[in-house]
Amino acid sequence: MIYEKHGRVVKGLGGLYEVLADDGERLVCRAKGNLKRDEERVLIGDTVTVTVDDATPDGIIISAIDERKNSLIRPPLANLDYIFIVLAAKKPSPVIETVDKLTAIAEHNSITPVILITKADLDGGAAEEYAEIYRSVGFPTYVTSSETGEGTEEIRRYIAEVLVDGATAAFAGASGVGKSTLLNFLFPNLSLATSEISRKIERGRHTTRHVELFSLSGGGFLADTPGFSLIDFERFDFFTLEDLPLAFPEIRARVGKCRYVDCAHVGEGREDCSVARAVADGEIPETRVESYRSLWRTLKAKKGYN
Ligand SMILES: Nc1nc2c(ncn2[C@@H]2O[C@H](COP(=O)(O)OP(=O)(O)OP(=O)(O)O)[C@@H](O)[C@H]2O)c(=O)[nH]1
Ligand SMILES: [Mg+2]
Ligand SMILES: [Zn+2]
Known about the structure:
The chain is α/β, with parallel strands linked by helices. The protein has seven helices and 13 strands. Strands 10-9-8-11-13-12 form a six-stranded mixed β-sheet, with helices on both faces. A five-stranded mixed barrel has the order 1-2-3-5-4. β1 and β2 form a beta hairpin. Zinc ion binds next to α6.
């Protein structure tokens, strides 16, 4: 007998996928040939049709992927509603431009960015400084420590409130910031592997190797993802020069208010630019506008923008 099921791809390893069917059954399947190639490749988080052929031993196949709400290259996930951007107060100290790039990628893909600052026990002052930046932009922001438990009740409550009825989120951020540790703290039955950061280079060791979506009791999904290192986060998922100001809420709000018609809000002798003024007046944190300008230059230098 041949029949179809519909479900969510929650895990993928070595060409095999695990699909949580809408009826609760877990199916291990392969993907149809054309769903293995780059653009059409099955992503964790996809909702899919699985065709089951009872008569064949390997007869459980992902045969179609539903249209995606959004998809990211890094972490490789589809249909996200929230992305928890995780940075540590220190060990490793955050690369703010990478954090801001992630917020921009999230905004551009209609994913709500949530800022999660870990390891507050190591430097509470630094944690608060980072938090201030992102609170001022208006992102939900949490300061936590998996060592002392600080802030974990608040984040647990937020997750319980928003990750319901199929809503999906991922923890993303540099290797070693404590993503898996915090997930274990919040959901002790996950038992995710974690490991100490390297003493020599003060970076993580890429302990988490694959993306996996966990189903939560409220009907939502939450993924742990492999951390990235400084070098492997070059690629933009993304967009044009014109899109970039729209991906920074505090700049987006001032685009229409700039008196220069063709302004990219990157400075260069334009003291009266609405964004430059907001920075001077302390309304936009300097680090955010520095990230914006740096990303703008990177994008402009890419082929096709001259
Ligand atoms: N002091 C302190 N250490 C922490 C905290 N959270 C995590 N750590 C430590 O940081 C190290 C890295 O934690 P992981 O959870 O493996 O980091 P990760 O972000 O999952 O790293 P990848 O899987 O490589 O992306 C471990 O030694 C943890 O014990 C914290 O809140 N405070
Ligand atoms: Mg991990
Ligand atoms: Zn301007």
